[in-house]
Amino acid sequence: MKNKLLLTTAIAGLTAITGLANAETKVSGNLEQTFKASSGTGTNAGRSFGAEYNIGLSNSAELSNGMKASFGFNIESNQNGAAADTGMTDSHYLTISGEMLSLSVARDNGQNLSSTVVPHISDQAGTVVDGSSIENVGSVDAHNLDHIRLDAKVAGGTLTLRYAPDNGASQINASEIADTGKSQQEIIYSGSLGVDGLSVQAGISKEDKLTSTDADQKFQKYGVAYNFGQIALGVQTMKDEAGTAASKVEYNQDKIGATYAINDNLSVGINYQETEKKTAGVKSASDEETLMVGIGYNLGGIAIDINYADVQNLANTSGSDAEFFQIRTIQKF
Questions:
Q1: What is the pTM of this model?
Q2: I need a labelling partner for 89 at 20 to 30 A (CA). Which of 5, 27, 158, 261 fits?
Q3: How far apart are CA 327 and CA 307, in angstroms?
Q4: How far apart are the first and last CA of the chain?
Q5: % of the chain exceeding 70 in pLDDT
Q6: CA dist., res. 289 & res. 233, Å (int)
Q7: Is the dihedral of CA 5, 11, 14, 18 positive or negative?
């Protein structure tokens, strides 16, 4: 009887595995190659080439209860000399979804606060500009950590509740524990609020303090944009708080941007952002100001974008001005 039960269990498991293997597996990937040049007050000019390449696998299955399971991962490599960056599982996810709600266990997946609704050409200024006071996202970004999240379809968009139990490095296997003691939480909404052409993003991310000398790390972003057809306009404000309780560093940034689609393949854009910095409540003498213009062209199998950024008071340092020029090609499959 025992052997018969074991045999039945084995057959059932084999059937499940076979059914999963017969499901369609999708392969996707991309290659990005970048040339960047910079020059600035009191610094030498710099030039470099870089590349990043990704490959991902994804699959899905209909569950017996009528819900759907989606799962996959992405592997990323680049030219950074650091061992941790030469090849890694960049993202992974398992999502169980119904008609209105979905539950995910994932990393670097789902909507996030590093994105923006402000229209721009390819990379944001925080990526094009090296050494900027604040880049795309501040000190807290639970999206990039191993997390669990709930997504709900509401008001013409998606509301995300995310919890990451640990802000340390992700573990190399599924059975290891290494807890830094700091957890992160996020609440994000992005969508149209039911209005055609409207894009709204609002969210807050928070990291709990570990000791009495720490400060809670907080990041918040609010943006709105509207697409008039060939023209898109958007504005955004965000605030980042980091550091210790005695010496908190606070950034406040406002951004505005516009793009114009000359035709289906060619677009131009302009962005301006201003960043204020406070340390222990004392404002820096100068705000960082960045003006960036860009052009993007789609050749079909290859997209090319060019961005030029002029920065005044880089890193909120008076008189530290710089220019950045970037060309990027993107190939996807």
A1: 0.83
A2: 158
A3: 7
A4: 52
A5: 80
A6: 19
A7: negative
